[in-house]
Amino acid sequence: MAAEHAQGFRRAFGAHQRYWIHGQFQGQPVILGGLLFAAAARHVPCRDVWPGWTPFQRKRFRYRLVANSRFLIRSGVQVPHLASHALGLAVRRVRGDWRERFGYEPIAIETFVRPLRRGTRYRAANWAHLGQPTGTGRQDRHYGEPGSV
Fold this sequence. Notes:
single chain; alpha+beta; Aminopeptidase; 4 strands
């Protein structure tokens, strides 16, 4: 993930769940990609209005929002519909895995797609586009990371 994902990878923080996408090449098992689900962004205006929560409800239930913070299909892998299929499988599984590991179920999963990308794999997996976020990334507390919106 660190070498091949456009944003790289640093150690996952807080509650998180990883999934590997396995396959076979010439009869040998290979890793085709991976997904990481982690704690959601604290405040995203276009997302925060979507559930129709009051400010009290937003504060109370925000911990139950989860983010798909990394999704990678390794370069050179060409399997039709692999991205949307893997995303669909992971989303169906993360709820139970999260409950088993952390004691509660997520109620929604979010992700962010850089403006230069189209989000095709998410659209193919029936994700809803809620809007363009503002501000900076969760870890960019000093607003110095270029492109961290």
